[in-house]
Specification:
The chain is of the alpha/beta class.
Length: 453
């Protein structure tokens, strides 16, 4: 079967070799249970609720091999009405906002990445509320096993992800992942198993996205007909590459849950502020400290933003404090290094990350708006010049402007370019001084379409 031959571990060809390497040995499996035996009661009858006792490890005292991990910057409201399965990773500055009438449940091996927002319930118009009720949704957010909520995604309850799906549900050996991509939104909807929502796309109130479909980038699916019929131009069938990618993402985030837990048990301060990546994984085996001007490794747990692993910054700590906003996550715990030149300014909720075996390099005097996402992954060479599996690095040149909610993924952005508000540039190469307008998907070196919401 496809997922038996597409393991991410099979793709590992090299280890990280840049930055200050702080390798630590593997700990015995029994380490956490032995050291925190008095806390194991929380692992039993209460379930895994991320209350203060059960953070950042949930349940506190669980072995790394079974624990879930919640970055200390994550915001959780009414934690006793939030339930986590095992191996869940909650990234920096994520928000899980439940209440006594709207619980949030997250199943085993799911992940909630940087700046994701999950609302147990929201007020809507009367028409939208009627659509939600007609779908059979009443309160809360249910996220099943093996769901991926990527950077900047939003889920507005009531909603269900990975629930139901006919043949998929009847055959648990088949793939069942749900993937929410960068900056997308699910609002009062149901996503069955084996579904996806692409970057800056949306599924609106009362819609059920059926197994085997993914929403195209930037599209706003507001009717059941749009969700069911690819000929209407808003969805497509899921293909083999989607499944392989999803399984790889899940493998990485399960690794994060385990190894951030292990690192916390060694040193509680290491999971805060400017600090180490966890290492000890097949995709990123070494631990690194970020490098700040004047070129020294730095660990600053009290810093308000999260800068993790082999991140190379041309600015000093004082300069970063002056030009950075809040809730920023520069995370080199998978792909590395991430290199940033002198920052002009960086708005709130900016995210940097990279797929394994890829990196990100950014020039000087770049202006970052709010909720910008820059993600490395290697630009795939297309067309007649394609050279097998060769990929090009993600690069942003000097004096580039990234406006609010813009996304750059697998791309090369030359000097002086401007990416519009709520626009995405994916797998593309922009010549100098290119201007991408607001609310546009630019994919494979061409305009794919507008962002419809």
């Amino acid at each position: 079967m496809m997922h038996q031959t597409m393991s991410r571990r099979d793709l590992i060809k090299r280890a990280s070799s840049l930055g200050v390497v702080l390798c630590l040995p593997h700990l015995p499996t029994s380490f956490a249970r032995t050291s925190f035996a008095t806390s194991l009661r929380s692992e039993q009858a209460e379930g895994s609720h991320p209350t203060e006792l059960n953070r950042p490890v949930c349940p506190f005292g669980a072995a790394p091999e079974t624990a879930s991990f919640i970055d200390p910057t994550a915001r959780i409201a009414h934690a006793d009405h939030v339930t986590l399965g095992q191996h869940v990773y909650i990234g920096p500055f994520a928000s899980l906002l439940a209440d006594e009438h709207a619980e949030i449940e997250i199943g085993e091996e799911s992940n909630v990445q940087d700046n994701v927002r999950i609302y147990g319930s929201l007020h809507r118009s009367a028409d939208d509320e009627a659509r939600v009720r007609a779908l059979g949704l009443h309160a809360g957010v249910e996220i099943a096993e093996r769901c991926i909520l990527a950077h900047g995604a939003t889920v507005k309850g009531p909603a269900q992800l990975g629930v139901g799906g006919g043949p998929i549900a009847a055959n648990p050996d088949e793939h069942q992942e749900v993937f929410l991509s960068f900056g997308c939104e699910v609002d009062g909807a149901i996503l069955e198993q084996n579904t996806g929502v692409s970057a800056l796309a949306r599924v609106g109130p009362g819609v059920r996205l059926r197994s085997g479909f993914t929403v195209l980038p930037g599209k706003n699916v507001t009717t059941q007909a749009e969700a069911d019929d690819p000929d209407l131009g808003k969805v497509r069938r899921i293909v083999e590459d989607d499944v392989a990618f999803n399984e790889a993402v899940i493998e990485v985030n399960v690794g994060f849950a385990q190894e951030y837990t292990r690192m916390f048990y060694l040193d509680a301060s290491s999971v805060r502020g400017i600090n180490l990546n966890p290492g000890l994984t097949a995709f990123n085996p070494a631990r690194h400290a970020p490098i700040l001007d004047p070129g020294l490794p730095s660990r600053v747990p009290e810093f308000r933003n999260r800068i993790i692993g082999a991140v190379y910054l041309s600015d000093s700590l004082n300069r970063l404090d002056a030009v950075m906003g809040e809730r920023i996550s520069l995370r080199a715990d998978e792909g590395d290094p991430i290199q940033l030149g002198h920052i002009h300014s960086m708005g709130d909720d900016v995210i940097f990350h990279a797929l394994e075996e890829s990196d990100v390099s950014v020039g000087d005097n770049v202006l970052y708006g709010e909720r910008v996402i820059v993600h490395g992954g290697g630009r795939r060479v297309l067309g007649e010049q394609s050279i097998g599996d060769e990929e090009e690095p993600t690069f942003i040149g000097d004096e580039v402007t990234l406006k609010d909610q813009s996304v750059v993924f697998r791309s090369q952005i030359a000097r002086g370019c401007s990416i519009g508000t709520k626009s995405a540039v994916v797998n593309s190469e922009l010549p100098p001084r290119t201007v991408i307008p607001d609310r546009v998907i630019y994919l494979n070196n061409a305009i794919f379409g507008p962002v419809e919401w």
